[in-house]
# Entry
Amino acid sequence: MTVLDGRSLARQIRARVATEAEALKRAAGVTPCLAAVLVGDDPASALYVRNKERECGRAGLTSRVLRLSRETTWDALRAELDRLGEDDAVHGILVQQPLPPQIPVDAVVTHTDPRKDVDGLHPLSGGLLLRGAPGFVPCTPLGVMALLRHYEIPLRGRRAVVVGRSALVGKPLALLLLAADATVTLCHSRTPDLGAVTREADIVCVAAGRAGLLTPDMVRPGAVVVDVGINRVDDHLVGDVAPGVAEVAGALSPVPGGIGPLTIAMLLANTLQAARRLTQGGDGPV
Ligand code: NAD
# Structure
């Protein structure tokens, strides 16, 4: 069984981002900058934002964190988002979720400048993805695709099953797999007999947030399994894939060390792309 090592690929992507960011700096005098907005004092969110700051630094990108109190009104947050949209030194904007109840999440997403939508959640980004046009794609599904590409997993004409239909992971991942010519089935909590569907798959991607959801009997021998789930069980991080799947699958991404590190690496890549589009009007390698 091949272990799909996201940590090592994330390191390679970060190194490529660093090289390309340096080239952009030399060519246009611009250092890509990610602005993260943190509303409230949720410790997990604070940790995620600190990690993103640290990763930006390691790739030669700059970052800013706007820390706002839990009582911040939507009007005040909207004004901050406007300021970040207008600030030429900022190329990527992300608003860390969850947000306090007075903040309308959908409005935050649509109000974020789509040119700086490095989380890929703006409806314009979603529309471009649906049409197969270049735009920002959410980082986690981008990470899954990067991992499959890196391990040269064939997708054209293959049966791919995605479990989970969120706007953040499942739906964009299904569209990316479709764009790569896989035959895609998107499953969710109302899918009856999930195992009957996943057993048909050459590639199964699970993003449900249910520890141990995918059991060995639900996997065709030799299938490629990508575990996107992150669940805390007895103080340990586990994915959505039950341990015995490693004995059946042909390849499996571990948790931790699979998709998690790639998600942050793709955030860096998206920030670099945003900086390039804003300063040079186009994309480049990463
Ligand atoms: P979500 O709660 O928004 O969506 C979960 C989806 O799973 C829903 O569409 C639901 O229908 C489906 N689902 C739930 N129970 C199911 C079941 N029993 N059978 C089939 N489908 C079921 O979650 P999300 O934001 O898409 O995240 C999914 C998981 O991925 C979570 O564990 C999350 O922590 C993890 N995640 C990881 C990363 C990463 O960097 N590795 C990034 C984002 C999310």
